[in-house]
C-alpha cells in the first residue's frame, strides 16, 4: 500500500506543509512549476501560496517558481477543458430545470394543453430531481428504474422514480444536445475520459511532474477514482491529510477508499514545535447583538498577520451586525471577508421580493395596501428627491396618511393617484415602473427589461451610494453585480428562455427562486487584517485566536436542507452514501485543535416570547463533557443582557423642565378619560402621545374602533331625533326602517374594503342581529312592565367640569390651586322609569365581554382605598388596579363623577324624591345581557354611600393621578407586558428602550 502523510492540526497545518514542500522543492527551480498542488478549497491554496512567499521573503528573495495551486473545482475544470474534445460551458441550474421539464413534457405527456401552467407546477419538482441526478453523477452511477418506488411520495415523484433510468438518460442526452455542462456532469465526464488509454498522451499531463492532493476528506466515488488515476499514472505524488489523535473516522474512510496507508510527518517539519492544547472559553447569551458586541472585545486595535485572529460566522446572517459593529468602533480595523453571503437580507433584494409579492397577491387591479406601502416606504424611495426639491418622503407620508384614513385592504393604483392628485405625475411614473409594467409580462426579455428599468430609476441614488466607503455600498455593488451577471443573462441570453413566451406569474416564480438562492461570494483577498469567514472556508487554515459565533444547533452542524426525494431511506434504496455529521465534527475539531485560544459563543433561548428556541450545538456539549472527563472546569461566562432590555429600568426619566411642561399641559388641556387612562396604562405611551405628540400609527384594514364607531353612529342616528322625548321603544322601533338605515350606514363605512369577504359577510349578519335583538330586549322589558318609559336626555352628550385642583407646581416646589377642565362625552344619557326613576349614563361597546368592573368586592376596594403619599410606579399600579386590569371600570366611574358634580342640570325631581344614578355599558352583541352597570345595589343606604363618594372623594383620586403625572420621577413602563400587545407606539418605544442606559 502507498503511504499518505498526516500533519497534525496543532502544528499549524499549512505552514508545516510549506516546510515539508520546500524540503522537497526549491522555489529557485523551474521544475517546481510542474508540481501541481490541489486543495479542497481556494482559500487554503491562497494561504499556502502566501506562506511560500513569506519563506521567500525571509531569504530576501522577491520572485520564484511556484507550484501550480488549484482548488479541486479549478482542477476539474482544467481537466475537463483540456481532456474533452468539445467542452461545454457551465450553465446555471435553473436552465437545467428547463431541460428536465422538456424531458418530462415529451416522455410523460404532462404538458398536452396548457404547457406553461404545468411548467409552473413541476418547476419545484424539477429542482429536487436534479439533486437526485447529481447524487448519482457524483457516485458515477446511472440510476435504475425503480419498479417499487418508496411509499409516501406523490404520484408524480413515484412515476418518475419508476422511470428514473430512462428519464435520466434522456435528460443527459438533451443536456449534451443543448451543449450545457455543470459541475457533477464535468466530474463524471472527466472520470469517464480518464478511463481511455490514449488520454494520458494529452498535453496537460506533460505539464505535470508531480501532484499533491492536500487535505481531502469524505470524497465521493468519482472523486476517488480521479485521485486514484493520478496515483496510478504518476511516479511522484503526495497525499497529505490533516489529522489528530484519535484519527477521525472520516479520514480513515478516505484512506481506505484511496487504498492508502499512512504515517505522521516528521516533527522536524512542524511549524509549531511546542504543541499545547488550546485554551477554550464558552460564552452563553440570549441576545445576538450582545454576542457580536462581546466577541469584538477580543479584537485588538491592529493586526499584523492574516492568521492571527479569525471570526467564524456559521450563520451568514450574522455578518451584517458584525461588520456594522466593527464599523462603529473608534478605530475601525481592516477586515477581510470570506463567505457565501445569501442575498436575501440585502435591502434591494427585499425590495424586489416585495414587488414580486405585490404582483402575486394582486387581484385584477387591486394591490394589497400593506405591500404597496412597504414598497413605497423602502429607504431607496425615501431618499429620492424630485424636481423642485420635492422630497418623496413627503409624498409618501401624505399617501400613507390617506391610505390609513380609508383603511382599505386592497387598493388600485388609480385610487392612489386620485387620493393625492397633486402628485399624480410622479406617481404615474412610479406606478408604471414598479407596478403596471409587471402586470402583463409575456416574455423573459420584457421581464429583464423591467428589472433594468428599476435599476435605472435608482441609478442616481446608487451612484451616490457607490462612492461611499461603507458596507452598505459594498453589498449594493455586489448585489447589482449578481443581478447583472447571474440573473439578467438567464432571462436574456440563454437559449432556453430568451424568446419563449411564459406567463408573468411563472417568470416571477423563477425570479423569486433566483433571489432566494443566489449568494455573494466574498473571497477575502488580499490576505490582510481581521479575517471573517464562513465555517467551511476555515478548512485547513490555522489561527492563533479563533472566535466562533452561533455555535448553535442548526448552524454548527447546519440543519440539512430537506429534499423529500433524498431522505436517508431513499438514499439507501438508491445506493447513495449517507454522510451524517462526521465531516462537520472533523472540521470543527481540527479548527479548535489548530488554535491557541478559542472563544465559542452560543445563544441559549429556552422559551422566548420574542425569540425562537435556540440551543447550544452538540459540539459545545461534547467539548464540555471532554473537559469534565479530564476533571477540568470549562471556562464559562454568561453574558447578561445589561441595559439592552428595559424591564429592569422603570421608564423614561422626567427632568424639571418636563415636569413643568406637564403641569402646563394639565392646565391647558381638556382632561379626558383617554388622557388619564393612557397614563394609568403606560407612562411611556403617555409621554409619546401627549408630550411628544407622536401620532399613533393607524392600522390598515378594520381597526378595533371601526365597528365601535359604526355602532355609535348608528345609535346616534336612531336616537338623536328622539332627544328630549319620553318614549316607548315599542312605538318608535320600525324594524324595516331601522335595518335600512343600518344598511346605508354600513355601506358608507366601506367595510367590504376593510375585511376579507367571509369576515365581512359574518360581521354584517352579526350587526343586523345585534340591533334587532337589542331593540327586542328593550321592547320585551316594556311589555313585561319593567321599563315604563325612556326619556332621551342626550346622545353623544358632552359632560364637562371645570374645577379647582391642588397640584404640585415644580417652579415653586409647592402645591397650588389650578383650574382643571375634566371632559367626557357619553353616548347615551337617559332617564328611565322602572319601579324607580333612574338616570343612566351609558356607553355603547362592541365587545360583548367588556364589564364595567362591578361587584361588591370591587366597590368595597374602591371605598377603602387610601392614596399613597409616594408617587412611584408601585403606587400608580395600585391606583390603576382599582379599575380592573384592563381599566374597564375607569370610564363609567369618571363619567359618573362628571354627571354627579352637575346633576342638577339633568335631574328634574326634587331632592326628597329618591332617584338612582348609574353608569355602565350597552353591549348589544351580548344578546342575553346587553346592559351592564357599575353599581348593582338595592338598598337606599348603599346608594347614599355611592353618592357621597362621588360628591366628596373621587376627585381626590383624579387629583392624585394628575399630581403623579407631574411629580413622579419617570414615565413608568406598564406593570404587565400584555398591555404592549396592541400598542401603536411599539416602534418608537423599542428604539427608546435601546437608547436608555
Ligand atoms: S409598547 Fe408597551 S411600554 Fe411601549 S409605549 Fe406601548 S404600552 Fe408602553
From TrEMBL:
Record-annotated PD-(D/E)XK endonuclease-like domain positions: 675-990
Q: Which domain of life is it from?
A: Bacteria
- Which SUPFAM superfamilies did the record assign? P-loop containing nucleoside triphosphate hydrolases
Q: Which InterPro entries match?
A: P-loop_NTPase (IPR027417), PDDEXK-like_dom_sf (IPR011604), PDDEXK_AddAB-type (IPR038726)
Recorded protein name is PD-(D/E)XK endonuclease-like domain-containing protein
Q: Which organism is it from?
A: Thermodesulfobacterium geofontis (strain OPF15)
Task: List the taxonomic lineage.
Answer: Bacteria, Pseudomonadati, Thermodesulfobacteriota, Thermodesulfobacteria, Thermodesulfobacteriales
Amino acid at each position: 500500500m502507498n503511504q499518505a502523510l498526516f500533519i497534525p492540526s496543532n502544528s499549524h497545518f499549512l505552514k508545516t506543509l510549506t516546510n515539508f514542500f520546500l524540503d522537497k522543492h526549491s522555489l529557485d527551480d523551474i521544475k517546481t512549476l510542474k508540481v501541481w498542488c490541489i486543495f479542497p478549497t481556494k482559500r487554503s491554496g491562497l494561504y499556502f501560496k502566501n506562506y511560500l512567499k513569506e519563506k521567500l521573503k525571509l531569504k530576501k528573495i522577491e520572485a520564484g517558481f511556484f507550484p501550480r495551486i488549484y482548488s479541486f473545482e479549478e482542477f476539474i475544470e482544467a481537466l475537463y477543458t483540456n481532456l474533452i474534445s468539445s467542452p461545454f460551458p457551465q450553465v446555471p441550474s435553473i436552465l437545467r430545470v428547463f431541460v428536465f421539464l422538456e424531458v418530462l413534457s415529451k416522455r410523460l405527456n404532462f404538458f398536452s394543453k396548457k404547457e406553461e401552467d404545468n411548467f409552473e407546477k413541476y418547476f419545484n419538482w424539477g429542482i429536487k430531481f436534479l439533486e437526485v441526478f447529481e447524487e448519482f453523477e457524483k457516485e458515477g452511477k446511472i440510476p435504475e428504474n425503480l419498479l417499487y418506488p418508496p411509499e409516501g411520495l406523490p404520484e408524480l415523484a413515484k412515476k418518475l422514480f419508476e422511470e428514473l433510468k430512462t428519464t435520466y438518460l434522456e435528460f443527459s442526452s438533451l443536456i449534451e444536445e443543448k451543449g450545457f455542462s455543470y459541475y457533477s456532469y464535468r466530474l463524471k465526464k472527466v472520470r469517464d475520459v480518464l478511463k481511455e488509454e490514449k488520454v494520458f498522451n494529452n498535453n496537460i499531463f506533460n505539464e505535470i511532474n508531480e501532484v499533491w492532493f492536500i487535505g481531502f476528506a469524505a470524497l465521493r466515488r468519482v472523486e476517488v477514482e480521479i485521485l486514484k488515476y493520478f496515483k496510478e499514472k504518476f511516479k511522484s505524488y503526495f497525499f497529505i491529510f490533516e489529522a489528530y489523535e484519535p484519527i477521525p473516522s472520516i479520514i480513515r474512510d478516505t484512506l481506505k477508499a484511496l487504498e492508502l496507508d499512512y504515517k505522521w510527518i516528521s516533527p522536524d517539519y512542524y511549524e509549531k514545535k511546542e504543541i499545547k492544547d488550546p485554551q477554550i472559553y464558552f460564552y452563553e447569551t440570549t441576545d445576538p447583538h450582545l454576542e457580536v458586541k462581546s466577541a469584538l472585545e477580543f479584537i485588538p486595535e491592529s493586526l499584523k498577520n492574516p492568521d492571527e485572529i479569525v471570526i467564524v460566522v456559521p450563520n451568514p446572517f450574522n455578518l451584517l451586525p458584525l461588520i456594522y459593529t466593527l464599523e462603529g468602533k473608534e478605530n475601525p480595523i481592516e477586515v477581510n471577508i470570506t463567505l457565501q453571503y445569501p442575498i436575501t437580507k440585502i435591502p434591494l433584494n427585499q425590495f424586489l421580493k416585495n414587488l414580486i409579492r405585490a404582483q402575486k397577491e394582486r387581484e385584477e387591479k387591486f394591490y394589497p395596501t400593506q405591500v404597496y406601502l412597504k414598497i413605497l416606504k423602502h429607504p431607496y424611495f425615501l431618499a429620492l428627491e424630485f424636481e423642485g426639491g420635492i422630497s418623496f418622503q413627503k409624498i409618501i407620508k401624505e399617501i400613507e396618511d390617506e391610505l390609513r384614513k380609508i383603511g382599505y385592504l386592497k387598493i388600485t393604483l388609480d385610487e392612489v393617484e386620485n387620493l393625492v392628485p397633486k402628485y399624480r405625475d410622479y406617481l404615474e411614473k412610479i406606478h408604471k415602473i414598479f407596478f403596471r409594467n409587471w402586470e402583463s409580462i409575456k416574455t423573459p426579455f420584457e421581464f429583464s427589461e423591467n428589472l433594468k428599468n428599476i435599476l435605472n430609476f435608482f441609478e442616481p441614488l446608487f451612484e451616490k451610494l457607490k462612492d461611499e466607503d461603507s458596507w452598505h455600498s459594498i453589498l449594493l455593488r455586489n448585489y447589482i453585480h449578481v443581478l447583472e451577471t447571474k440573473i439578467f443573462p438567464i432571462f436574456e441570453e440563454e437559449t432556453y428562455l430568451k424568446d419563449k413566451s411564459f406567463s408573468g406569474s411563472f417568470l416571477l416564480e423563477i425570479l423569486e427562486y433566483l433571489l432566494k438562492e443566489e449568494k455573494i461570494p466574498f473571497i477575502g483577498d488580499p490576505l490582510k487584517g481581521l479575517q471573517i469567514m464562513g465555517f467551511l472556508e476555515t478548512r485547513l487554515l490555522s489561527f492563533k485566536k479563533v472566535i466562533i459565533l452561533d455555535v448553535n444547533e442548526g448552524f454548527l452542524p447546519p440543519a440539512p436542507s430537506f429534499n423529500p426525494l433524498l431522505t436517508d431511506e431513499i438514499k439507501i434504496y438508491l445506493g447513495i452514501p449517507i454522510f451524517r455529521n462526521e465531516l462537520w465534527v472533523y472540521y470543527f475539531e481540527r479548527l479548535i485543535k489548530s488554535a491557541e485560544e478559542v472563544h465559542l459563543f452560543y445563544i441559549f433561548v429556552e422559551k422566548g416570547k420574542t425569540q425562537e428556541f435556540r440551543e447550544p450545538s452538540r459540539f459545545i456539549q461534547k467539548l464540555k463533557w471532554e473537559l469534565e472527563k479530564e476533571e477540568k472546569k470549562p471556562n464559562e461566562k454568561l453574558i447578561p443582557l445589561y441595559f439592552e432590555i428595559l424591564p429592569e429600568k422603570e421608564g423614561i426619566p422626567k427632568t424639571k423642565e418636563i415636569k413643568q411642561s406637564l403641569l402646563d399641559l394639565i392646565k391647558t388641556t381638556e382632561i379626558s378619560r383617554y388622557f388619564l387612562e393612557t397614563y394609568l396604562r403606560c407612562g411611556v405611551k403617555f409621554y409619546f402621545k401627549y408630550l411628544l405628540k407622536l401620532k399613533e400609527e393607524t392600522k390598515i384594514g378594520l381597526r378595533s374602533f371601526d365597528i365601535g364607531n359604526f355602532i355609535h353612529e348608528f345609535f346616534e342616528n336612531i336616537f338623536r331625533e328622539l332627544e328630549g322625548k319620553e318614549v316607548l321603544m315599542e312605538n318608535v322601533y320600525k324594524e324595516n326602517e331601522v335595518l335600512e338605515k343600518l344598511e346605508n350606514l354600513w355601506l358608507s363605512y366601506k367595510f367590504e374594503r376593510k375585511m376579507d369577504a367571509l369576515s365581512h359577510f359574518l360581521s354584517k349578519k352579526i350587526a343586523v342581529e345585534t340591533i334587532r335583538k337589542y331593540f327586542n330586549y328593550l321592547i320585551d322589558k316594556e311589555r313585561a312592565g319593567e321599563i315604563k318609559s325612556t326619556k332621551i336626555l342626550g346622545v353623544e352628550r358632552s359632560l364637562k367640569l371645570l374645577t379647582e385642583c391642588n397640584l404640585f407646581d415644580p417652579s415653586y416646589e409647592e402645591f397650588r390651586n389650578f383650574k382643571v377642565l375634566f371632559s367626557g362625552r357619553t353616548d347615551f344619557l337617559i332617564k328611565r322609569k322602572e319601579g324607580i326613576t333612574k338616570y343612566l349614563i351609558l356607553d355603547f361597546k362592541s365587545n360583548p365581554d367588556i364589564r364595567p368592573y362591578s361587584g361588591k368586592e370591587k366597590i368595597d376596594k374602591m371605598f377603602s382605598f387610601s392614596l399613597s403619599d409616594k408617587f412611584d410606579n408601585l403606587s400608580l399600579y395600585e391606583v390603576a388596579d382599582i379599575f380592573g386590569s384592563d381599566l374597564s371600570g375607569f370610564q363609567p366611574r369618571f363619567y359618573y363623577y362628571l354627571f354627579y358634580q352637575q346633576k342638577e342640570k339633568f335631574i328634574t325631581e326634587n331632592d326628597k324624591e329618591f332617584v338612582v344614578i348609574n353608569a355602565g355599558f350597552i353591549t348589544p352583541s351580548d344578546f342575553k345581557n346587553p346592559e351592564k352597570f357599575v353599581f348593582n345595589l338595592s338598598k337606599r343606604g348603599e346608594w347614599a354611600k355611592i353618592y357621597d363618594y362621588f360628591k366628596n372623594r373621587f376627585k381626590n383620586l383624579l387629583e392624585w393621578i394628575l399630581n403623579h403625572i407631574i411629580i413622579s420621577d419617570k414615565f413608568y413602563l406598564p406593570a404587565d407586558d400584555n398591555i404592549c400587545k396592541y400598542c401603536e407606539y411599539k416602534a418608537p418605544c423599542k428604539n427608546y428602550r435601546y437608547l436608555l442606559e
